[in-house]
């Protein structure tokens, strides 16, 4: 019994510490959103395979805190989703990214959208208003939504996405292959693009099963008239593979990681312009 009690104490101590840390992080994130301090957007180029031009960028949220340091999105995005802060954070990213990219001719910007944001019944109105206010035409905006989120988008959320598409906004299926949906589902979803998850892209030159998945998604995407994007391209072998598989666009560290907004022009100067 003594042993059990001892373990119990250790357990609650750790739980307390985890909860305190979480609360501290939640408070800090909320404060950062009020002041804007420490929050920024990075932009990662997306390149058209056929001619190597940068056609768009993906906006990636960054958070730096004086005490916590750099907090990775894999930590603060789930926290923001659980606490509902993602609605304000998502809108901040959207407005920041639209304003920055409105100043670059012809480039599109892809913004990540959480399932929680889709539950807001005025989601489509907010998105179109943000783009309009930034002076970014709707057809230069893409929304990246994971397959899990889009499959569960029912009723009002599905209708909001349809209205956005009708207004010219493109919908991109993010991390494709990691959720539970099947290839057959691709034809039923109202999307314009499909992004093959980097786990398949990176394994493709080495493993037959990943190679088959990349080729299958690429072929089906082409047959359905979708733009197929390969994410996480890090090596020349991966680039060649996704090109030969017929992918339309690629993105990854081989070309560039995300860069801050004030370094974007410099980065784009290094590529043939679109
Ligand atoms: P994601 O949407 O799949 O974004 C791509 C992630 O892969 C980014 O990580 C990017 O930096 C990273 N990446 C790009 N190229 C490569 C590569 O060649 N190799 C490897 N290993 N990684 C690569 P990041 O910025 O840490 O973001 C992680 C995730 O956090 C994103 O995954 C997205 O789900 C989420 N996220 C980031 N910003 C936002 C945002 O503004 N809103 C929402 N809702 N989610 C966001
Ligand atoms: Ca994404
Ligand atoms: Ca992704
Ligand atoms: Ca193609």
From TrEMBL:
Occurrences of domain EAL (ranges): 22-272
Domain of life: Bacteria
Protein name: EAL domain-containing protein
């Amino acid at each position: 019994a003594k042993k059990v009690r001892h373990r119990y104490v250790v357990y609650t101590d750790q739980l307390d510490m985890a909860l305190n840390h979480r609360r501290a992080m939640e408070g800090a994130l909320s404060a950062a959103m009020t002041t804007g301090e420490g929050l920024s957007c990075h932009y990662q180029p997306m390149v058209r395979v056929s001619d190597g031009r940068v056609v768009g960028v993906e906006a990636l949220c960054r958070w730096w805190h004086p005490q916590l340091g750099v907090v990775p999105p894999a930590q603060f995005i789930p926290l923001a989703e659980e606490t509902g802060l993602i609605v304000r954070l998502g809108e901040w990213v959207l407005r920041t990214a639209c304003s920055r990219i409105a100043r670059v001719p012809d480039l599109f910007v892809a913004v990540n959208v959480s399932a929680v944001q889709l539950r807001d019944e005025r989601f489509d109105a907010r998105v179109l208003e943000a783009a309009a206010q930034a002076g970014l035409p709707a057809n230069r905006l893409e929304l990246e939504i994971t397959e899990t989120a889009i499959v569960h988008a029912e009723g009002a959320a599905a209708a909001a996405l349809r209205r956005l598409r009708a207004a010219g906004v493109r919908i991109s299926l993010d991390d494709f292959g990691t959720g539970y949906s099947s290839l057959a589902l691709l034809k039923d979803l109202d999307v314009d693009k499909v992004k093959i998850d980097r786990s398949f892209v990176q394994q493709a030159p080495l493993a037959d099963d990943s190679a088959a998945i990349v080729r299958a998604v690429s072929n089906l995407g082409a047959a359905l008239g979708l733009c197929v994007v390969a994410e996480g391209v890090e090596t020349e072998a991966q680039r060649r593979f996704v090109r030969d598989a017929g992918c339309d666009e690629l993105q990854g560290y081989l070309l560039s990681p995300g860069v801050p907004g004030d370094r974007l022009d410099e980065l784009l100067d290094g590529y043939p312009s679109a």
